[in-house]
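Subgroup meeting minutes
Present: P.N., E.W., G.H.
Scribe: E.W.

1. P.N. recapped why we're keeping a running log of single-chain structure predictions: easier to compare across weeks, and new members can see raw inputs and outputs side by side.
2. G.H. added today's entry (373 aa).
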Amino acid sequence: MAEVGGLPGSLDESLRHQPRARLALGAALASGPSHAYLFRGPHGSGKREAARAFAAELLSHGAADPGDARRRALLDPSPHPDLVWLVPRGAQHLVEEVRETVIRGAAYRPFEGGRRVFVIEDAEALRDESQNALLKTLEEPPDFAHLLILSSEPELLLETIVSRCQPIDFGPLPATAVEEALAADANTEEAAAAARLAGGDLGRARSLVGDRGRDMRARAEACAAAAVEGADGSAAWRELLAVAEDAGAEAEDNIRERLAAEAETGAKRTAREVNEEARRAGRRRRTDVLELGLGLCASWFRDLAVVASGAEDVAFNRDRIEALRAQAERVDAMQARSAVELVADTLRRFELNVSEELALEALAARLRRALGG
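Output recorded in log:
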C-alpha cells in the first residue's frame, strides 16, 4: 500500500483532519503498538474509520499476504477472522457478549498472522459489570491481543479502564471537511448549513441533508417562527415530540426483531431481557431525536441574534438566510439570545426526568413572552 506522509494510505486518509491522533498512531506503528487504546472524541469525528484503518495495519503485520489481510480488515463488515468488532445491540452492550467475544476471545491465538484486534464501539454503553470484567484482559493481555476502545463520552467509563489505555484524541471535524463530504448529497448552501448545525459531526450532518433531517429542520423552524410571531407554539412542539416518539417506537421494534432473530440462532435471553433492551433502545432514540429538535431550534434563535446584530455571515442556517432576515426585523439580538437560554434550560430539565410534554408547553409560553408575543 502506498505511503502518504509516513502513514499507510487508508490510515492517513482517515486521520486527514485529526493531527493529534495522526501523530499518536503514527508513533505507535513506528515504535510498536500498545495493547489497549482509547479513541476518544465527539460523535462523527472519524474514530470508527480510524480504528478500522489502524486495525488493518495491526493485522497486516506478520501476515503471509499483508496486502490481502489489510484489504479484508478494511471491509465493513470484515471477514478477517482476527478482527472482532463489537457494537451495542440496543442502548447498552450485552454483558455476555462482551465476555464471550472479547474476554474469552482474547485468549485464543490468532487464526492468521501474529495479532488479534478487538474493537469496542460506543464503549460508554458498557455496563459497570462489563467494564469490570474487562479489567483483567486490560491488565494482563496476551502478547498478540490489541483492544481499541471507542467512546464519545469517556467520562462514563470507569477510571480503571481509562488508566489502562493509551488515549488517542479526536476533535470535531472542521466545517469545510464536512461540507466536502456532503457535496454529493446536498447543494452548496444546504451542505454549509448542515456542517455548521452538526458541529463537526459528519454522521449528524449526513442525517440533516436526508429527508428526516430536512423535516426536523422545518419543524424546529416552525416552533421558532410561532414564538417570533407571537402565536401559540404548543401545537408545533407537540408535533416535534410526536416525531421523536415515532422514532423511538421504530427503534424499539427494530431491536425486538433483531433479538428475536438472534434467539432463533441459539442466543439465550429471557422475555424480560428482550423487553428491557428494546425499551432502552427506544428511549435512547426518542431522546436523541427530541434533543436534536431542540438543538436545531436553539441554533435558529442563535442565528436570529447574529443576523439582528448585523453578522449574518456567521449564521449556521445560511440556506435560510431570507427567513432569518424577515424574523430578525421583529426581534432584537438580546431577545433572541434569551430564547437560546430558554431552550437550553428546557434541555437541562429533561435530565431531571420531567414530563417532556409539559416542559415543551412551558417552553412555548416562555418563548412567546421572551420574544414579545
